[in-house]
Amino acid sequence: MKIAIVGYGNLGKTFAGSFVKSHFIRKEDIFVYTRTLPKREDCFLIPLNNFSTDHFPFTEEIDILILAVKPQEFEKVAKVLHDKLNKEIIVLSVMAGVSIQKIANLLQVNKIVRSMPNLGTQIGQGMTVFSASDTIDRKELFIIQNLINTTGKSIYVENEGMLNPATAVSGSGPAYVFYFMNAMIQAAKELGFSDAEAELLVHQTFLGAVSLKASLGLSNDELIKKVASKGGTTEQAILIFNKNSLSSIISKAIEKANLKSIELGD
């Protein structure tokens, strides 16, 4: 199986690196079309002659094309690609806000998968939600999901519209986590810890909590009860969260992000 990656920014490099490290795709079978040649350390042992900057020489032999360009660059890229792709090629897009229909119209291809990855893909801990055109069969979908899973975990949704809430929850989600971490770090410093101490306290607390959740397989409510004993310190913090409707604030924020995703996709 041969793969062409169009665009070699963060996501393009992430996919190339994940394919090579997982041994899912041979490095000789990965081809890259990019504006500038990458540094040698960013090539992941992919042969240098598999990179192209001035034209798209990878035509009939390509089975899967990964679109990893910025959404605003897609129309320009599509003009280069549309008459060079075989009709059986599968196109996997990681472009935010570009619909399956638009990709089909501009590239004149039928088999399209649209995905919404998040920041964790860069370290193999990503969460990707993806949808596909009706022309993709089950076997092809399985291959695509295996490709995506080299960067973390994934969920397939039949309804392409679900990529908007996916953007709001998992796509933007890492920023919410960092925001909450910042708030806890600030609180720790106000209580007398140094910057470095506060950073370590919060970072290790998040890391340990997520690892514990994965290890024990308990619900969040069950884990909260393990920490928040009645009349204790944790209970007081949770009471303040509830009094100020923190859960409602988070829900409203994610809904606002969802609406913005819908707006940007129109």
Automatic annotation (TrEMBL):
Stretches assigned to the Pyrroline-5-carboxylate reductase catalytic N-terminal domain: 2-97
Keywords, in A-Z order: Amino-acid biosynthesis, Cytoplasm, NADP, Oxidoreductase, Proline biosynthesis
Cell location: Cytoplasm
Transmembrane segments: none
Pfam families for this protein: F420_oxidored (PF03807), P5CR_dimer (PF14748)
Family annotation (HAMAP family): P5C_reductase (MF_01925)
NCBIfam families reported for this sequence: proC
Protein name per Swiss-Prot or TrEMBL: Pyrroline-5-carboxylate reductase
